[in-house]
Amino acid sequence: MQQHAYIKLVPSSKQQSITSEEVKNLFRYYKEITSKTGTQLGWEYGQSAFPYSMEEKSEGKDRWFYLKGTDRQQFKYIMIGLDIEEKDETNTSYIQVTLPEGYTHGDKGKANEFCKFLAKQLEGELHLFNGRIMYYYKKK
């Protein structure tokens, strides 16, 4: 069964909208900083921290892409989509992270880790797979 998590860009977030390319850049930044951590520790941590390749199909251009596991035993896929929630007269952009059917425990663990990273970087509101909410934006 599929599971979904959401990172909502609320009025207190760093930005109010986001593009597919900006999300990919955040993943590249994540991969870069984890690789540097591995270098400092003398361990190839980069591949373990981000065991996926980013892939995009033409029908999902600028709307969604997926992370394809490089170690197909432990990691399969994580889908990343972008959309806007229209509520009353306000529009809230959000990133949807989907674990497709047949996901592994490794996928779910990495998806949780990526969601927390993205929410922290964007100062957003994270709705986890289990329904709980984490707030990463500054409260006034």
TrEMBL record:
Transmembrane spans: none
A Pfam family: DUF1885
Gene3D superfamilies linked to this entry: Rbstp2229 like protein, Rbstp2229 protein
Classification via InterPro entries: DUF1885 (IPR015062), Rbstp2229-like_sf (IPR036294)
The protein, known as: DUF1885 family protein
Lineage: Bacteria, Bacillati, Bacillota, Bacilli, Bacillales
